[in-house]
């Protein structure tokens, strides 16, 4: 009553509901492996020491007044050099925007491009696009993906949906799956967007791509990160990148995000960010500017973080593969990037020792929380149907040892199902 229609229609986070259940059991003294949150335990994964010191120095240097609306110039310069070094992408500092973590970038991309009723196309499962559609009153177009393609969208999946759309929201490595685009799949999607834009009339809005690559520094083994602009430079005016330090520096609470793209989109985004006041804290920006320049230090940190995250993901993956080999109805997709593993627990219709029938993924999840002391997030929290028995497992808040103990506990819990 007496609040906006938008506020009435907002959806809460599914993950928070699961977290509430986990916290309740923790209060009762139980130890639960919490694989729900897309975050790091900062005692297991602290931010880089050199970054931390520079933040402290920036405060000591009284870097505490308003930063410029688009970010401190030195930070935009450092980011511009960083993306040149890492991806060979050329964006001058005036096409870079520094924000309070990367979420404000996503919101401002939607605000800058999408009018109420515009079509925004995104794959399912994916993270939070539905909420940004709600906030901008966009028409969301959900495109289902398949485990056979690692839950990444293909051009064929997207083709029937992009006619007349304003925004295609892509992410790789993908939250929630930890999987990535192959070069060929991303190239074909780029070509689809190029073709669609050729059909637009002068003055009509083109189809833009929001390319969220916040996990691009966390990729494993042979899996290589690709981006639309390097693959198809002619898309440069149509791609806005979402990136930042939250995941690659395990710095989710530090709140320094960066985005880059064509000036005609970055400029209005800057105004929107300014009105929201969603800047990154100035001292953190100053520290990030100095830290990003320390190439050897940054690479050493990234290497160590990647090695540890990969070990945890691989241990969990192997645990699930072992259960599968023993005949349990579970599966897992090889980890490629980010901090997530995609796992399947296919036990709908089975009965618990208390006589309760597991009706959907949420029931399976709550059974595992209680009986195996492990909490996952069903793909339903990322837009999939409740009948989809795939889950996200996030390893950032657990030690390797904790991860290694999970599969045996799941096994015991599954054995008890009839
Ligand atoms: C794909 C993706 N993009 C963006 C974000 C937001 O990151 P930040 O904490 O920098 O706002 C997240 C956080 O979980 C994410 O998973």
Termini gap: 46 Å
Task: Name the ligand types.
Answer: pyridoxal-5'-phosphate
CATH topology of the largest domain: Aspartate Aminotransferase, domain 2
How can the largest sheet be summarized?
7 strands, mixed
Proportion of residues in β-strands: 5-15%
Structural class by helix and strand composition: alpha/beta
Radius of gyration: 22 Å
Task: Give helix and strand order, one letter per element, not per position.
Answer: HHEHHEHEHEHEHEHEEHHHEEHEEEHH
> Please, what is the average pLDDT?
96
Give the class-level CATH name of the largest domain. Answer: Alpha Beta
Helical amount = 40-55%
CATH homologous superfamily annotation of the largest domain: Type I PLP-dependent aspartate aminotransferase-like (Major domain)
Annotation field: number of helices: 15
Could you characterize the architecture of this molecule?
The chain has a 7-stranded mixed β-sheet with strand order 2-8-7-6-5-3-4, sandwiched between helices. It has a 4-stranded antiparallel β-sheet with strand order 9-10-13-12. Strand 6 (208-212), helix 9 and strand 7 (239-244) form a beta-alpha-beta unit. The longest helix has 31 residues, at 295-325. It is globular and about 60 Å long. It has 2 domains: 5-30 and 300-415, Aspartate Aminotransferase, domain 1, CATH 3.90.1150; 63-292, 3-Layer(aba) Sandwich (Aspartate Aminotransferase, domain 2). Helix 3 (49-60) packs across helix 11 (282-292) and helix 12 runs parallel beside helix 15. The chain has 418 residues and is α/β, with parallel strands linked by helices. It contains 15 helices and 13 strands. The chain starts with a helix and ends with a helix. The model has no long low-confidence stretch (mean pLDDT 96). The structure holds pyridoxal-5'-phosphate. Pyridoxal-5'-phosphate is lined by residues 38, 101-103, 127, 171, 175, 212, 214, 244, 246, 252, 257.
